[in-house]
Write a sequence for this structure.
């Protein structure tokens, strides 16, 4: 039987790294569904473990918690397709691309999905355990997100064109 409870050690590590990344005890407490005082105590406990050598600070852990912070702030990691193959990137990274690059990614990913005969099954929830359509679901999420980014770029572009062409 697998428990849904998060271990105390993971909470300590999370509170420590998230506080080092600039989150307040209130923010951490809200995400971990605890009190700010407990979040602070958990962060201090992990700091003590680091000082005593009971735990070791590592780049892998730091990067993991940076990713958790990004996701908590609404930045999502996307899997998409380009003419060079499959890629992963954060939404914030894709936002920095220009319209033509985004459109190329959007079209490649959408073409892949359109050619997949299993596409009709994406409208149903994934089965428990193994999901044979996980990659397709990720691509669909990316196509929707990139479509939204393209719409934002279109609004920005058409808004700036209107301003330039407006006569005083």
């Amino acid at each position: 039987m697998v428990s849904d409870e998060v271990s105390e050690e993971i909470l300590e590590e999370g509170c420590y790294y998230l506080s080092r990344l600039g989150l307040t005890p209130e923010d951490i407490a809200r995400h971990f569904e605890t009190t700010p005082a407990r979040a602070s105590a958990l962060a201090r406990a992990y700091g003590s473990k680091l000082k005593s050598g009971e735990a070791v600070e590592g780049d892998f852990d730091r990067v993991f918690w940076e990713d958790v912070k990004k996701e908590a702030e609404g930045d999502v990691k996307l899997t998409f397709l380009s003419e060079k193959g499959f890629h992963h990137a954060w939404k914030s990274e894709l936002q920095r691309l220009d319209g033509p690059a985004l459109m190329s990614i959007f079209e490649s990913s959408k073409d892949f999905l359109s050619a997949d005969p299993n596409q009709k099954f994406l409208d149903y929830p994934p089965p428990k355990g193994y999901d044979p359509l996980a990659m397709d679901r990720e691509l669909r999420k990316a196509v929707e997100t990139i479509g939204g980014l393209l719409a934002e770029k279109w609004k920005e572009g058409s808004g700036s064109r209107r301003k330039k062409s407006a006569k005083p």
